[in-house]
Each structure stands twice: as structure tokens, then as C-alpha cells.
Amino acid sequence: MRNATEKLSYLQAIVQAQREEMRRDDSVILMGEDIAVYGAQSLFDEFDESRLRNCPLSELGFTGVGIGAALTGLRPVVDLTIASFLYLASDQIINQAAKLRFMTGGQLKVPIVVRCSTYYNNRTAAQHADRPYSLLMNTPGLKIVAPATASDAKGLLKAAIRDDDPVIVFEDITLWGKKEEVPCDEDYLVPIGKADVKRPGSDVTIVAFAGTVPPALAAAEALSKDGINAEVVDLRTIVPMDKETILRSVAKTGRLVIVDNSHRVGSVASEVAAIVSEEGFDSLRKPIQRLTAPAVHVPYNARLEKQLFPGKDAIVAAVQRIM
Amino acid sequence: MPLAPAEQLECYSRMLRIRKFEEAIIAHNPVGHLSIGQEGAIVGACMALRDDDYVTGTHRSHGHPIGKGADLLPLMAEIFGKRTGICKGLGGSMHLTDTSKGLICESAIVGGGFPLATGAGLSIQVRKTDQVSLCFFGDGAANEGTFHESLNMAAVWKLPVIYFCENNGYAVTTSVEKSHGQPDIAKRADGYGMPGVIVDGQDVEAVHKVTQEAVDRARAGGGPTLIEAKTYRFDEHSNRLAIPIKYREDEEVAHWRGTRDPIALYRAVLLAHHPVSAIEEIEAAVTKLAEEAVQFAKDSPEPDMQDLIDSMYSNPIHFPADAGIA
Description:
The complex is a heterodimer. Chain A contains eleven helices and 14 strands.
């Protein structure tokens, strides 16, 4: 079984990760709105209902309840469903979960996982479609992961559940249905803080994560037809960021394109660009290119919404500008 | 069950420890939000708890660990910001969290403790222990959204949580009358489907009695209770905050200080049951202890930058902050 795999979608891999961790450790519980219907329904057949909490509509409250439970011996997985709802819960995440270990001089640990999906490109308009990675990036004390594949979703979520610090998991709606062979090993973990070179190359580095990885890989494929050999680095973890892998890649290629579905100002792409400017400047042969969503809100109109996020063609064009 | 004679003396000692601890703060390091006047409410509640019961508290944090029986020395060192402080000097006056006594948070975000205490209750229920969780909060916090969300969840899930309001009459300068449509906060309990109890917070044994009833109910699976102790803050909101207006009358403060001091009231009660020497012995010991705590704090070293880094995460990682520390 060690090397066995199973074809699973990104969402199925997430459910499997939760099931395996709930079997492995009685202190793991799931909390969220309507989890009995969406996301965890199959788990209700297997586990005691005291470990599966369908919560009232109280995002701030039940996120804080999860944090309180984490302080007192449980490992809660709180499903906030849509990342835009994270703003409601942000006080408990930022002022309590991220700070309690520090503020008590290390007396406490906060082993909570907060899951939320970035719900964009889905005609839900501006109050459901945010990708607020960088909002939390500026909060020390959190770890933040954003997987791009089913295997990474499983391995990162399992690592997050076993981690003693608060971990925010951003799950990307554009990837939910994507299937691949996922390791069956119940101890399959993807280490938090390690990026992954999804496609090796030598001419240009494309840093992507979550929903920008598929268009980055498609762009790399298209560029290869023109003789340009692009390396695609999937960050996988946003905090702590694996700057060694980024810098190693840029040292090899001398060119950097960063693809991020955040709004441009203070984005994940901005942080990657800043790190490479400070620590990899001598490797750069051309200016760093950031491809992000512009500083406008997500519209309901589907044609306009699609244009906000950097796709394959925009990535190809950005690479060609610096070759 | 009423307090046994030895428990009565312990009760008096803890109230006095809060008072002397804070008088030492006023004398030596005047920071923070003082609980002087509120000792009866705090200690009465804590005396109904076991060491392994959980407590969350507030920015007015000094009384809660002392009420729960914590050692004064690391608490005073924390007030002075020292490395030997209970939080290594990283938390300070508003956050005297001694986890060895079951404290899990002293939140300076008003209302921040409601969900955490509720979560501790959830944890107790899932782990099937007979612990309880007690949430201290002020009258001002009752107007935060977390109050509503948390009490509702605790009632729905029948969690072993006691929501304990230290109603001292004022949120900084705003009175309960001017900020609460229903000034009896405990009456809100009915809206959540849980018992609500109002008690005289200056009567430590009365507070203990109602809290013990709530604790017993919670341990037996009967769910949460909302208790409101009517009390009074003798000093200003914070030693460090200038109050440019007169928001309460001098006569009101003098009345509470003069006739409603929970320690003086309890001393008179104890004299009927205990020799005066037993009481004076406690008073001398607590006075000495507060002095020792100040000396310990003064003699202790400061924390350093490495303590900040080491306290961030459970495992040492090269998190992005490393580049920002010179």
C-alpha cells in the first residue's frame, strides 16, 4: 500500500485527508456551516457526531470556539467555506490564534486548521470571490498554505492538522474537480514551507500557486514550442515562504514571472518580488514581472471576471517581454 | 455547599492578594487596569473551580490568576516586563495568563474570551471529562457580537461553560444605563435558553454559592449559565489613561469605597467565625508576599530578541520575520 495511488479530485483528496486524520487521532474534530451536507457528509456515517459540528451562522464565534478547543487539547479543522467570510472571523484568527502562543511566552499552542475556498471565476460577485492570502500574510504567527493539486491538497492538509501552530488552508474553487493519482499512504504528508518545482526549466522562472499553477504549466508548454524552457515553481506554502527554492531557480534562469490571483497591491507576488530583489538581484537579467488581478473588485459579469485573472496567454506574453 | 472554615480563610487570602498585588503596582510600577473593588466577584467565582477548570479573562487581568491561586512572583515579574514573568514579559498587565492554573486567555480585545471559553467547553464535551470553563467578562463586553454568538452555541450544544459578568457599571466612562437597553445583563440569558443569575458581587460567599450551583449543573451535563455580579471599580479604567471628564460622582465612588468594599465586608463576616489572630496572620503574610514579588520582579532580567523569535511558532522555522530583525 505504501506506493499505491488512487485517482481523486482535489475535493475528494481533502475529504480523504480529514477522514484519515480523524481515524488516526481522536482529538481531530470538524466544524463549519452545513458540513453535514457539503464537504463532510460521508464522515457522518463513520464518526461520533460530537466530533462533527454543524455550526450556527456565527463565523467569528465558531472560529473562536475552534481556537478555544485547540488551546485545550483538540485539533479542530474549521471550515469557513468561502474565503470572503474570513473577514468575519479575522479578529479571532489574528488577535487570538496568531498571538496566543507569543503573548503567553510560549505557554500555549494553537493547533487549529482554518479551511476556506477562494471562490472566484464563478459568477458570485465581489462579496464571495476574494483571494485574501496577503491579508493574513502580514500576520506573524500563522502558517498559510494554498495547494494546487489533489496530492498537495491531501498532503498539506494532513500536515496542517498535525502541526501545532494555526494553519490557514486556501482551497481554490477552480481546482476542485481536477483529478490525479493521489498517494494512499495514510502518512503521506507534504511539508509546510516547501515549494515544489512542478516543471523544471532553464530559461525563465514562473512562480505560481493555487489556481495559477495550471495556466503557468500551460504557458510553459506553449513556450516550449518556441524553444523557451520555463521552470514552474509552485509555492504550495505562502507562509513560511520557501525562498531558497525561488532564489535557486532564479539563479539558474535569471528571469522571473510571478503569477498570483490576488489584487496587485501588497500581494503574494509583491512579497516574492521583494525577496528576489533583495536577495537575488545579481541573478536577474531582466525586470521581474508580476501578473496579478488589478485593483478592481470582482464583477458579476462573467466575461469581465475572467479577464481579471492572469491566464496562459498573459503569462506567455509576460515571458516573451523579458526574453 | 458553603465554604468550609479553611476555605473561608483561603478566600480572604486570595482577595487580599489581589488588593495587595495591585497596591504594590500603584506604588512601584503604575501600569494597568486594576481590579480593586471587584475582588469579591473574582474570588467568589474562582473558589468554585478546580485547578483543572479553564478560565478566560479580560484586559483587567490581574485578579483572575490570583483568584485561581497562581503564584504572585511570576505575575509581578510580568507586570515589570521581565523574562521571569509568567509570559516572559511578552504579554504584560492585560494578559496575566497562567496556564498552570487553567487560564487560557486574558483578552485585551473586549469580548475576545467568549468564543475561547466556549471552545474550551466544547473540548471538555468532546474529551468527555468533568471539567468546566468559566468566562470572565465585563459589562462592556456584553455588547460585543461574540457574546451573542458564543452564548447561543453553548446553549445549543449544552456546553459546560459559566459566563461570569463582572458588571462594574462602566465601560471606560460609558455607564451600563447609557449602553444597555436591558441593564440587567443576566436577563439576556432567557433569550438563549439558559439560566441567568444576578448576585451581589461585593458578597464573596454569595458569589461563590451561585457560581458553585452553575458549576455543579455544568459538570452534570446541564449546560451553561450566565451570572452577573454587580460590582464596582474603585479606581479609574486604567492607571495610564487620563480621563478628561467627570463621568461618575465623587459621592458614588465614596459610597462604594466606604461601605461596599468586599474585603472589609468579608473581614467582618470572618471575625464572627475565626480568631482575629488568624486573620491578621493572613494579612501580614500577604503584605510580605507582595513585597517579595516586587523585589523578585525588580531583580529579574529582561527578555531579549531571541525570546520573541522563539515564542512565535512551535517549531523553529525560517519565517519571513527573520529578515526584519536587525
